[in-house]
Design a protein that fits this description.
With about 260 residues, this protein is an alpha/beta fold. It folds into two domains: about 100 residues, 60s Ribosomal Protein L30, Chain: A (2-Layer Sandwich), CATH 3.30.1330.30; about 160 residues, Alpha/beta knot (3-Layer(aba) Sandwich). The protein has eleven helices and twelve strands. A seven-stranded parallel sheet has the order 8-7-6-11-9-12-10. A five-stranded mixed sheet has the order 1-4-3-5-2. Strand 3, helix 3 and strand 4 form a beta-alpha-beta unit.
């Protein structure tokens, strides 16, 4: 584990960690550069346990011992607190950041082989909701998560943090566009259950009472919900009964309720 002390925030060795609060910049740099950022020793450890490799680790002096067993051959850049905050734009409370090599996305068929319950996230743009949905999937027994081409990146720093590293625990990959995505799932024996509001929707309780063997639970974007093409691909539209004049839940909360019922 090579340790390098760096005091200049403009040092080119720290380029992977610069301006993390600029979402647009990170969206360009992380996928194009084949990197994502993992935050905290616990999350970095989960990423490494899942087979991901760190390119480098950024840490403050007092937390060096937390990453000694994680870095392997990757350099560990030790920086003063003020440098860490200048780089990232926020107070680094969790001790360590790692620039991780992004693994190649596996084929959908490999991810769903043997699965009985998968979650499909369509065009969810909020990284917090994506991370929360992954945490729910891990906690409540989903076998895999499939994300649409325009869904927010599960490996974006905030998604990873909110998921508590479960994005490395639950198998996932990206689906192609509809209707190709629906064809793949149907060909593999999945019943597509769209969580949405519709006149012909069945309640979650009724759907669970006659649960198909293999279920793909589809959840849509905040506000607009599932797209027309996604609903056309669905076999059943399922709704969670609401009270108090509320028509729906936040997508992450809805995923938790539905997954608990389908567990």
């Amino acid at each position: 584990m090579p340790i390098e002390h760096v005091a200049d925030p403009a040092d080119p060795r720290l380029a992977d960690y610069r301006d993390l609060t600029d979402v647009a910049l990170r969206r360009v740099l992380e996928p194009a550069g084949g990197l994502y950022i993992a935050e905290s020793a616990k999350v970095i450890g989960r990423a490494i346990a899942a087979g991901h490799r760190p390119r480098s680790i950024l840490v403050q002096e007092k937390w060096v011992d937390d990453v000694r067993d994680l870095a392997g051959d990757a350099p560990v850049y030790v920086v003063p607190t003020e440098v860490a905050e200048q780089l990232t734009g926020y107070q680094v409370h969790r001790g360590a950041l790692a620039a991780m090599h992004r693994p190649v996305a596996p084929p959908v068929a490999d991810i769903i082989a043997g699965a009985r319950l998968v979650v499909v996230l369509e065009d969810i743009v909020d990284h917090t909701n994506v991370g929360a949905a992954f945490r729910n999937a891990a906690a409540l027994g989903a076998d895999a998560v499939l994300v649409s081409p325009r869904c927010a990146d599960p490996l974006y720093r905030r998604s990873v943090r909110v998921s508590m590293g479960t994005v490395f625990q639950v198998p996932w990959t990206r689906l192609p566009k509809w209707p190709e995505a629906g064809g793949i799932l149907h060909d593999n024996g999945f019943h597509l259950a769209a969580l949405a509001l519709a006149d012909d929707a069945v309640t979650l309780d009724d759907f669970v009472a006659a649960r198909p063997e293999r279920v793909a639970l589809m959840l849509g974007a905040e506000g607009d919900g599932l797209s027309r093409r996604a609903l056309e691909a669905a076999d059943t539209v399922v709704t969670i009964p609401m009270a108090g004049g509320v028509d729906s839940l936040n997508v992450a909360a809805a995923s938790a309720v539905a997954l608990w019922a389908l567990r």
